[in-house]
Amino acid sequence: MADSRSDLAANAARERLKQAMIRLADGDSAALEEIYQSTRVKLFGICLRILGDTKEAEDALQDVYINLWQKADRYDPERASPISWLATFARNRAIDRLRTGKVRGGAVPVEEALPLPDNTPLADALMVDAERSAQIHICIQGLDERTREHIRSAFFDGFTYAELAARADVPLGTMKSWIRRGLQKLRVCLEASEAS
């Protein structure tokens, strides 16, 4: 369940970034701040790995966002995930700085600035995840309303068992039992769907 929750959060973050990239391409300057906040750490890491100097990496990162503002319309959401496109953008900007020869010591040789792996899941993995997610929701719908709401609150909304017990005005042990029994029913449902 925790994996499903983190997968949902990751998918939501990717979608927000994709939408921000599209808005930026349409001229929405506020989208640049959103993109910066969600990508700066990763892109700085890429620049730092290649350039080997914090100041140089900061300068390269600034160039990345300036160029992004100017070239956002080149992003095609059908061809690449936003973070893959931005990572390539950052890598190329850092390599450009290496090629100019104006970089301080500590940078790697240009030949060592290898392409970054694309961690975007393959299409078949995305399909399996989507099917699994759909089956989880089908199985959750099969639970009684009370159990369904408590499980959703605990695993999708982040409420603790103690908070749920207080909200439902029941002892903590009762809440734990309700959720445990609900999770057992979910497991049976999911195992049955995988067996068929």
Give a description of the structure.
By secondary structure, this protein is an all-alpha fold. The protein has 2 domains: 2-112, RNA polymerase sigma factor, region 2, helix turn helix motif (Rna Polymerase Sigma Factor, Chain: A, Orthogonal Bundle); 123-195, Arc Repressor Mutant, subunit A (Orthogonal Bundle). The protein contains 8 helices and no strands. The chain has helices at residues 2-25, 30-51, 54-71, 82-100, 123-141, 145-155, 161-168, 172-195. The protein starts with a helix and ends with a helix. Belongs to the sigma-70 factor family. ECF subfamily. It comes from Erythrobacter longus. Pfam families: Sigma70_r2, Sigma70_r4. InterPro entries: RNA_pol_sigma-70-like, RNA_pol_sigma-70_dom, RNA_pol_sigma70_r2, RNA_pol_sigma70_r4, RNA_pol_sigma_r2, RNA_pol_sigma_r3/r4-like, WH-like_DNA-bd_sf.
